[in-house]
Specification:
The chain has 144 residues and is mostly helical. The chain has 7 helices and no strands. The chain is 79% helix and 0% strand. Helix 1 packs antiparallel against helix 4, helix 4 runs antiparallel to helix 5 and helix 4 packs across helix 6. The longest helix has 27 residues. The protein starts with a helix and ends with a helix.
Length: 144
Amino acid sequence: MKFKSKYLLIFLLIIILASIRFFEEKLFYDPLLNFFKQDFINALFPEFNLHHHLWSVSLRFWFNSLVSLAILYLIFQKKPLIKIAFLMYAIIFLICLSLYYYFIITEFQWGFTAGFYIRRILIQPVLLLLLIPAFWYTEKELRQ
């Protein structure tokens, strides 16, 4: 793949990630968006359809993940790294969704901070920001 087209594709994929974030209220059912935008520590926990919300969070996670995996592939162009990244995404998804479910059904009794950040991992492409330097460093070390 040519240098310019590779970086153009990466740029377009980043635009897709930004679009997912920009249109989040239209694309996904997330009643906690407004809850966390206000003084949520003193606010009443909103009532909502739990299963619909978890489905929406899961869908958003996997949209972000697929775009992130495509970015990782374009940067490193190594299928074994993408397989490892996919496995990491799947494991983190299962752990974070389970924890997030627990925080929701207990209405964040154990604290809002942990639940808030677990939710962030699920709805934002945070793992991409961690995997790019991790894979870059790993490749650098393997070359030496």
